Amino acid sequence: MLLSNITHSVTGGLSLSVDFDNPLDYLVFIFQLLFATTAVLVAGPVVVTILATRSLRLQNRFIFMLNTSICDTLVGFSVYYLGLFDVQEGYPSRHGTYNVLPSLLGVNIMTFLFAQFDRYFAVCHPFIYTRFITRRVVISANVYCWFHVYVQSISANFLPLSKAIQLYVFSIVSLQVIVLTKVIMTIKLYVVARFQVERDPPSAEKDNQKESLRIIIFVVISFLVLWCPSFVNIVLRLIIGRGVVFRNEATNLFAIMARFNAVCTPSVYIWGSPALREAMMRTVWGRVCPRCKRR
User: Fold this and answer.
1) What's the CA gap between 35 and 29, in Å, rounded?
2) Cα–Cα dist 39/184, whole Å
3) Mean pLDDT of 51-57
4) What residues pair up with 16 in beta bridges, in sequence order?
5) How far is it, in rounded angstroms, from Cα 97 to Cα 94?
6) Res. 72: pLDDT tops 50
7) What number of other Cβ atoms are within 10 A of residue 12's Cβ?
């Protein structure tokens, strides 16, 4: 309780996320601290590696990885605030960020959707893909994800509360359409990877296609599994007025699961892409730990 009182006086009203009255409070606080650090240390090197490696930047699929990894790194930094202090996002808000930090997950959702369409056209319609889906188009799609999500989020802050809630409900409905589309595209990509790519003769291109499809399928499935409980809880609270209410973001189990994608997604990238692993060992960890580079 002493630590909580000190923080309250120093921050001018913003207290820590827990009171430290029982051992569980200490576990929650330590978990949030470790989780934020892990997310930054896993996703951050992916960002640095792709930016520092020209051969990766020239491939469209790594541009999508870069965009989501930037989001995941920022999510990790955001947990230092959302997880360590007494913050409640949404309506009503308490010491919130006007949905600026939670909107990072929205950017990831849209990026994954564009990445799925990118992989589908790259494998199933290579002629159309090479002709129309240029690097500039891919970068523009990633920039649009940020623009769309944050224009909507910022606009809500300047609307009357009733209109802001209507916009919030509209965004939830839009997310339902996006989630349904993602599920359909995941099934479609699995069918493509399982039957179409397997029939192609062995080649480096075939290996790249299998790798990219495997990564996007694993990433989208893990993202939906971790994010859907929070989404369902929000929908239930909006539609029938019932759902699980948590004390703050630090104790919100569903929000923690959704933010855990910041660790899971870059981990899948590292696991599924040998080129990314090698480049990361050379550009990041090889410089931090020279012994690792020699192994």
Assistant:
1) 10
2) 29
3) 94
4) 85
5) 9
6) yes
7) 6
Round to whole Å and give the CA distance between 77 and 72.
Answer: 9
Q: For tokens 């703050």, what's the residue?
A: 248
In sequence order, the 6+-apart residues with CB closer than 8 A to the CB of 128 are 121
Tokens 């892990």 belong to: 38
In order of 108, 247, 253, 279, the CA distances from 93 in angstroms are: 23, 12, 18, 42
Q: Are 123 and 209 in contact (CB under 8 A)?
A: yes
Q: Give dist(CA 102, CA 210) in Å, integer.
A: 32
Buried b (16+ CB within 10 A) or exposed e, 48-80: ebbeebeebeebbbbbbbbbbbbbbbbbbbbbb
pLDDT value at 86 more than 60: yes
Residue 6, pLDDT > 70, answer no
Separation of first and last alpha carbons in the chain: 48
Within its chain, how far is the Cα of 288 from the centroid? 26
Average the pLDDT over 275-281 and give the result.
93
